[in-house]
Amino acid sequence: MPQRSPFLTRPPMPGADAAAAFDALFDRSLAKGPNALIDYNLPWPRWQFIAHIVEARALIAHGSQNDAITEFEPRQSHDAHPFGNREAVYGASDGLWSMYYAILDRAAQPMLLVNSAARLELEGGALGDPFYFFSISRPALEARAFRPGMLYLLPRDSFEQMPPLTVGGQRAHVPQWASLVAVTPLARIAVAPEDFPFLDEIRGHDDAFILERAKADPDGFPWLD
User: Strands, DSSP E only, in the chain?
Assistant: First the structure.
């Protein structure tokens, strides 16, 4: 029997009526001024609104447990990849990936994050559907270290995207972006763990095992234990 892929695919998005309602709500929210709090009251899941707006308006999303950020300042990050090892503002052009960061209660429960989002480049240059992997330290998963957070929607003007990677002979586009200058959010929306469609599919891992596997095989992501 073929082994099931550890990667997750995004659930279906709604149709044109939902997209029109999402766009109208976002425009009304922007009229309130910079960093407006979006009062989401539509009948479709909140994640669908976020996914649509981030893609349709070419925005950058940043998830945080801090609900009162008025400006994002560049900060030094520590990452094995040179792109992510700079003093910058980081965000994603994928709303679901950013939601994951928004709902993790890392202050209450220390955790090692192993996660990814990407789209494979198809013949002709088109991109396939997004796929994901989410895992946190097993004790944090067992403690259900999730809580409500805030998702910020940022203009893309000053951001640059991480260069594509090669995975299994195909180019993979990772929706990670970086800005070397400060960024003021356009809007923000509150999110709760139950809004995240992959909440029950977040994995738990042994930190020591993951670190050992990653050191031995840096290209072996996601280093399943």
Answer: 8-9, 36-37, 60-64, 75-76, 87-92, 113-120, 131-137, 149-154, 159-161, 165-167, 170-173, 176-179, 187-191, 203-205
The pair of structure tokens assigned to 86 is: 């700079």
Does residue 173 contact residue 48 with C-beta atoms inside 8 Å?
no
Mean pLDDT of the chain: 92
Q: What percent of the chain is modeled with pLDDT above 70?
A: 96
Which residues face 36 on adjacent strands? 187
Distance CA 207, CA 143 (A): 15
The tokens describing 224, both together, are: 């399943």
- Exposure pattern of 182-211 as b/e (b: 16+ CB <10 Å)? ebebbbbbbbebebbbbbeebbebebeebe
Q: Grade residue 2 by pLDDT with cuts at 50, 70 and 90.
A: very low
Q: Which two tokens stand for residue 85?
A: 């090892």
Q: Are 131 and 198 in contact (CB under 8 A)?
A: no
